[in-house]
Each structure stands twice: as structure tokens, then as C-alpha cells.
Amino acid sequence: MRITATEEYGLRCLITLARLSGDGPVTIRQIADTEQLSFEYVTKLLRPLKKSHLVKTIRGTKGGILLDRKPEKISLREILLALDTDIFDKEYCYSHIGQQNGKCINIAHCTVRPIWHMVSIQFMKIMSRFSLADLLTDRKTINAKLSETFAGFNQHT
Description:
Number of helices: 7
CATH class: Mainly Alpha
Low-confidence stretches: none
Number of strands: 4
Radius of gyration: 19 Å
Shape: globular
CATH superfamily: Winged helix-like DNA-binding domain superfamily/Winged helix DNA-binding domain
């Protein structure tokens, strides 16, 4: 399981964009300064978000970046997928010691891989339940939504 700096900072850039864009387009410099990231890094982070139609650019002297949809219409799942998140790396079982002919020696009877795969599926389902708008609220509100989301889960542990 992994969440990279790209996903973390990409998500933070979108939160900043959503917070600052009330008056119109936001510049990459504004996002970079707010998040204390380099201009070049923010530019790099915004490319896949634009390609996935989560942000759009406005040209001109009053141009900049805007969300392509309202924050409540953008799920965290969409954001993570745009930033290339696959919480369970498909190559995981192929990158460790214990390979024979390029395949894991345990592939036929592996009991771990199905668990990692299911965790990944469940993680993305949870991320589908939350929107960018949820991240614009306060900590109390997000904790309440988390408690609601996991209410049934906690009863089984």
C-alpha cells in the first residue's frame, strides 16, 4: 500500500485551488506559494488533473486555473486515479525475492495477494464516498462523515 508525494501534494493543490477560486481563476504561483511548493512541481502536478478534466486553464492576463466541476462533483477517487494512484501496485508480487521464471513461487496458492487486492478495492470505494467539497469543511465535519462511513465496520472488529 502506498500514497506517494504526488498524490498527497496533488490533492493539496486541488484543495487550495478550490479554496482560492471563489473570485475566479487562480495562478499556479498562488497555489505554489500557498502550499510552499515550487512553481515547476505544481505545474507538473496539475498536468494529469487537467488531462482528467478535473481542472481547466483560462488563458489571458486574468487567466489561471479553475476546477472543471464543482467540488462536490469531484470524488477523491477521481483525484487519486488522475494522479495515477493504485494503492495495490499490480507489480507487487513480481518485485520481490522468490521468483521462478519471472513469476512468484507462491502465485498458485498465495493467500496474501487477494487481501491486498480487496483492501485496494475497499479503499477506492471509500474514496468514492468523499468529495473535494468534503475536504473544504472543518475537521469536526469530516470526522463525523468518517464515523458515519465506518459505523458498520467498527461493529465487526
